[in-house]
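Researcher: Hi, I'm a grad student and pretty new to this. My advisor asked me to get structures for two proteins we've been looking at. I'm not sure of the right format, so I'll just paste the first sequence and hope you can take it from there.
Model: That works fine. Here's the first sequence with its structure tokens right after it:
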Amino acid sequence: MKRNGVPLGANDSLRRNLSNAFGACSPSHFWKHWNPIWGYYLAGYVYLPLRRYLPQPLATLVTFCASGVLHDLAIGLLGQGWQGFISLWFFCMGLFLVVSQAVRLDYGKYPFIIRVGINLVHLLACFVCALQIRDLVLN
């Protein structure tokens, strides 16, 4: 896979992957570059089959939820039990992505370091939203 511009496993692969993801000009571009192998399988086995039956925004949101469930399942299989928090966080990130696509959010005109900050803030904001939702549900 050359989504980051170099062959998988090349010396510069991880640095370029992180640089492309965090320096992305939009949430869509961030997710295009974040974990390209996982994204490839999610696209092929979850998103594209769903896309045949669902509108793009809903297929995107369900794909993020499926990814969160798989992450929670992996954590549970490691002996931590079912937490469900990762699924909620991925739901929030998927919702943010869908909304950002609808409003055509693009911060490509900003310098690299500002784009890194924006992408970090969007991940952190989704994390905080997931914490707030979890606390509301549990209380």
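Researcher: Oh nice, that was easy. Here's the second one.
Model: And its structure:
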Amino acid sequence: MKQLWVFLLFLSPLGAIADVWLPAIFSNDMVLQQQSSVTVWGWAQPGEKVKVTGSWLGESINTVTNENAVWKLTITTPKAGGPHTLSIEGRNKIVLQNVMVGEVWLCAGQSNMEWSAEHGVKDAKAELPTAYNANIRFFKMPKLTAETPQTDTKGKWAICDSSTLKRFSAVGYFFGKKLTQSLNVPIGLIDVAWGGSYIESWIPEHIVNMFPNTRISAETMIPSKGWPRQAGYIYNGMVAPITPFNIAGHCGIRVNQTDIFLPLITN
């Protein structure tokens, strides 16, 4: 009988009350693209009012969660600077701390982008003792695949230091370090690299299938124990979840000797 009451409570409106929650790409220590209309999104109870407030804004931006439990809105960001806070409030309240505004870059590709100090990159290893830089923030995404486009991923933002740099893309880091020195603004770097991966896995499957050459190429991908051989699988698991996230651009994507001009990130 006790189990039955618990089950009925779960089905009741009281049991259905849901807190506001955010995708992993929003966390403490994050970087938002400067001087932009930035998309902020998440999930909550259908019909729930959600209020988003940036500490740099004069007023909150409000929206209502749709029938699919999704809410989305845009906020404007100022010139580079920080730290700021970003508050998201519905039935509960989330306050993201130490949020910087600057330039956000996607770092994606094969092993030449994936290699890090942990992989033995000497220049990156030499940086470790003095790596701390509060103006460089990392979002290191694990290798993920999916049969269909996903809406969330794994990972969190972290400040560059000897610990976080160890596993982060060496190419991405030096690119970000150069930008920080040249522009004197906070830099956010999103690492979505996968060594050895096929270009077709990075492209949405329906786009691969639109053209005979890419479709045939996808059908003849050689099986591997180190990376997927299905069209769109990396896109679905690692790119689709962050497509609404505003970025300045991407650095150095090269897969199977082909430079990808990816229509992957669409703000």
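Researcher: Is there anything I should tell my advisor about the second?
Model: You could mention this: The longest strand covers residues 93-107.
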